[in-house]
Amino acid sequence: xxxxxxxxxxxxxxxxxxxxxxxxxxxxxxxxxxxxxxxxxxxxxxxxxxxxxxxxxxxxxxxxxxxxxxxxxxxxxxxxxxxxxxxxxxxxxxxxxxxxxxxxxxxxxxxxxxxxxxxxxxxxxxxxxxxxxxxxxxxxxxxxxxxxxxxxxxxxxxxxxxxxxxxxxxxxxxxxxxxxxxxxxxxxxxxxxxxxxxxxxxxxxxxxxxxxxxxxxxxxxxxxxxxxxxxxxxxxxxxxxxxxxxxxxxxxxxxxxxxxxxxxxxxxxxxxxxxxxxxxxxxxxxxxxxxxxxxxxxxxxxxxxxxxxxxxxxx
Length: 315
Hints:
The chain is α/β, with parallel strands linked by helices and 315 residues long.
């Protein structure tokens, strides 16, 4: 019997049965998907009871590369490089820093010492050695502090990509750093509306879209999504961690082949106060400058970066 549009609630018995079946199937599918996600989600628990998520790509017998991400991102921000290196035979490990991505969100411990110790525990848990250790932006600080606290006995090569060392903040001993007002502005914007902050950073200086006048919405949305996956308190505290930590003494412990890659139009971590200063402190390091490149070169210059990292690993 045909039903009229003004009689929407009188469902037939067949429709009820089909609807119930669809709900049951959807429920089973969702449960099965959740189970698969739980089974395949690699994590470990640190000594201070923080859960750290990580990915482990490529052949298990490949030479090990560890990639440490920037703020407020997670391991996904390295996916182009991880895919490229794993496809070329390397075992590539990327992790979500505490408070970021799929890792847990502790109230305390959002500082470089804890970041470095978490990295050390990941390395110990997987028992990997002869590692090529690369850090992007804040991740470059994490890698540098790891070496300062834990040495290079398990490290073969080091890479700092758009990285924050030696120190971003302007001080008496670092007059070319950025003034505290810059980072206070980040903190204020984070408290006011961090969702908007992440969109503004991504659509402006991070990828250099304020220079080009065009915006890649996909990159903006990816940045925003990763930022919003991170904890509010964790990303707030991390602003001090990446800006005010002095890595000068940590850099003195660099005794492995090191590459520094940085764009000379980086508006987030200006090159003079970072890469060029690191080169003076680690004179044997190789410095590669990407002319006109912004901060987010893992995406904007990903093919060139992939090629440079692979060449460095093979050298």
